[in-house]
Amino acid sequence: MEQVPLLHVLILSTTIFFLGMYGFFARRNMLMILMSIELILNSVNINFLAFNHYLYPHQLEGLFFSMFIITVAAGEVAVAIAIIINLYRRFNTVDIEDTNTMKY
After folding, report:
1. 1 three-class SS
2. CB neighbours (10 Å) of residue 80?
3. pLDDT tens, 7-21?
């Protein structure tokens, strides 16, 4: 069984990262921005796991950092969804430009 080259994993991670960055800056929908942040965090997870596997194959630090990031991302999603639901109840939209809370 052959290993996947590190370059292929880094190309995948970079692609996912920049798709997340594009989604974060180009979208106005709060849910799409939240999903873009999740893509960015998942690309970081891929990097942690890949470098841990190639540099220190018998240690688990990359796995532990990855599990920590997944835990933080789950908490972030829970809080962000609660905020988005409250903003939707107040303004009846999830578009960022329509929910300018400074004018109220």
Report:
1. coil
2. 16
3. 999 999 999 999 999
